[in-house]
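Subgroup meeting minutes
Present: P.N., E.W., G.H.
Scribe: E.W.

1. P.N. recapped why we're keeping a running log of single-chain structure predictions: easier to compare across weeks, and new members can see raw inputs and outputs side by side.
2. G.H. added today's entry (75 aa).
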Amino acid sequence: MCSVLFLFEQSARTAKPPPQLTWQHGQQPKQQQQQQQQQQQQQQQQQQQQQQQQQQQQQQQQRQQQPPGQKQPLL
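Output recorded in log:
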């Protein structure tokens, strides 16, 4: 990604457009990188949620496996 930005900056310098255009062109690649990073973070969060759901299912199964004799004294 860094090499792409480096080449992009070189092309912008050689073209020498007005300063406002160079600033806008310089901002666009950074915004694209930030969006990609955010998408990766969201995917990681979804994976974590799936893991939590699996843990909850395992706990429920363990409770069902307990014999009814252990649950009666609690009542």
